[in-house]
Design brief:
499 residues, Aldehyde Dehydrogenase, Chain A, domain 1, 16 helices
Length: 499
């Protein structure tokens, strides 16, 4: 059976831990590989390699670091088919979706290729008599990324590209459910010319996470996962003196105004709610039609569209989505469907018990639609993270705005309308971090920044864009003068001013 090892100092982990985790094939339910689960000793080996390599990498001029990023981008593109197949085999998302996963990560790599420009500092000549002031950014040293199962390509690329381009060494702790793609990316970094020890991968569970959060040589940690764990990671990392950004869960709303193009809305909802089996933090699992007439018209169009969705294995080019990642997650999703029905939701389409012929043991959940969901239901309050769309009806614009604004999560929201004034007001007032106007999945482009509000994010700095550059660097400000001996000496006991 295939064994997935750590990637440390440009090679495999070497000393194999007795602890291992199963990596499943979601399409048939079988175990396809085992991943080595590391501990603090394994992490220390990675940290030692990073400490040895990082000073020289930080001293490498930015344009040479950018050339490595360019070569890395080309290698990922050349190996896209292999990476997508590997990703789909462990996660379960269809091949086209896996390629999209990797491509969105590559967009951040493209941004990182411009690192010489974004690292330029500030300069003021003549801030005082003969005094100049300038500032520049320096790497924090060693950073770590703890990444989730649902985007094993994109999110490691989001974190590593900027961290490495700015001069840091970077350690990835991927999800133990689908760990192979981050290892392959680290190998491609070495092939692109990155020094050994600058990008490394360590596998593990909570023991490894805690080791990362506690290690004094790791200066910054970026995390994406569930909100409870994000809160834990943030608190423990900050207590250890680290810079931490921890992105959590979501329950994104799609607000449908009466004037919206419902055919477009249904098309967008089908992809946003059910694509990748709903295992996206930017999915749209809640649709809020405004007005009873809008709700009925929307439901009438949604039912046939959802019934037409094809669930298949990840290599089926005609499938809209594939299996979920594990049997445990399948059972969790089906439990939330049952819970919503118990709470009074009207089950329109039931995806429980879905079986795919020839793959009866796969982790498949059929598309599910539930109407008349209300804000007091636990199934509305919590993240289901599966192919389940809930309809929450609103009487008017203000009620719809309030639903998204008051929810515990504030990751993303979308408004569907033809009314520019309503869209402008909604974008200004909604208490959510990322807003889409007739855009169902409002993930910002790489040179902007990604991050939610409320329990969707802990920390003050977002992912990628200039926010990412700020997170992985620290500012140094220099005040200098070069006296020629002719100036009168001032009172050295008075705080200096620039007057």
């Amino acid at each position: 059976m295939r064994l997935i090892d750590h990637f440390i100092a440009g090679g495999t982990g070497g000393l194999v831990s007795p602890r291992k985790g199963d990596v499943f094939d979601p399409n048939n339910g079988g175990v396809q590989a085992q991943v080595v689960l590391g501990d603090a000793a394994v992490l220390q080996r990675a940290v030692d390699a990073a400490l040895a390599a990082q000073p020289a990498w930080a001293a490498t001029n930015p344009q040479r670091r950018a050339r490595v990023m360019f070569r890395f981008k080309e290698l990922v593109e050349a190996n896209m088919d292999e990476l997508a197949r590997l990703l789909s085999a462990e996660h379960g998302k269809v091949i086209a979706d896996s390629k999209g996963d990797i491509q969105r990560g590559l967009e951040v790599v493209e941004f990182a290729c411009g690192i010489p420009h974004v690292l330029k500092g500030e300069f003021t000549q003549g801030a005082g008599p003969g005094i100049d002031v300038y500032s520049f950014r320096q790497p924090i040293g060693i950073g770590a990324g703890i990444t989730p199962f649902n985007f094993p390509g994109m999110i490691p690329l989001w974190m590593s590209a900027i961290a490495i381009a700015t001069g840091n060494a970077f350690i990835i702790k991927p999800s133990e459910r689908d760990p192979s793609v981050p290892v392959r990316l680290a190998e491609l970094f070495i092939e692109a010319g990155l020094p050994e020890g600058i990008c490394q991968v360590v596998h593990g569970d909570k023991e490894m996470v805690d080791a990362i959060l506690d290690h004094p040589a790791i200066g910054a940690v970026s995390f994406v996962g569930s909100s409870d764990i994000a809160h834990y990671v943030y608190n423990r990392g900050v207590a250890a003196g680290k810079r931490v950004q921890a992105m959590g869960g979501a329950k994104n709303h799609g607000i449908v105004m009466p004037d919206a193009d419902l055919d477009q809305v249904v098309n967008d909802l089908a992809g946003a709610a059910f694509g990748s089996a709903g295992e996206r933090c930017m999915a749209l699992p809640v649709v809020v039609p405004v007005g009873a007439d809008t709700a009925e018209r929307l439901k009438a169009k949604l039912i046939p569209a959802i019934e037409a969705l094809k669930v298949g294995i990840s290599t089926d080019p005609e499938a809209h989505y594939g299996p979920v990642v594990t049997q445990a997650h399948k059972e969790k999703i089906e439990g939330w469907i049952a819970k919503c029905v118990e709470e009074g939701g009207e089950l329109i389409i039931d995806g429980r018990g879905f079986k795919l012929q020839g793959h009866e043991d796969g982790f498949f959940v059929g598309p599910t639609l539930i109407d008349h969901v209300t804000p007091d239901m636990d199934s509305y309050h919590n993240e289901i993270f599966g192919p389940v769309l809930q309809i929450v009806r609103a009487d008017g614009f203000e009620e719809a705005l309030s639903l998204a604004s008051k929810h515990q999560y504030g990751n993303g929201v979308a408004l569907f309308t033809r009314n520019g004034r309503a869209a402008r007001e909604f974008a200004a007032r909604v208490n959510v971090g990322m807003v889409g106007i007739n855009v169902p999945i409002p993930v910002p482009v790489a040179y902007h920044t990604f991050g939610g509000w409320k329990r969707s994010a802990f920390g003050d700095t977002n992912q990628h864009g200039m926010e990412g550059v700020k997170f992985w660097t620290k500012v140094k400000t220099v005040t200098q003068r070069w006296p020629d001996g002719s100036a009168e000496l001032g009172n050295a006991f008075v705080i200096p001013t620039m007057g």
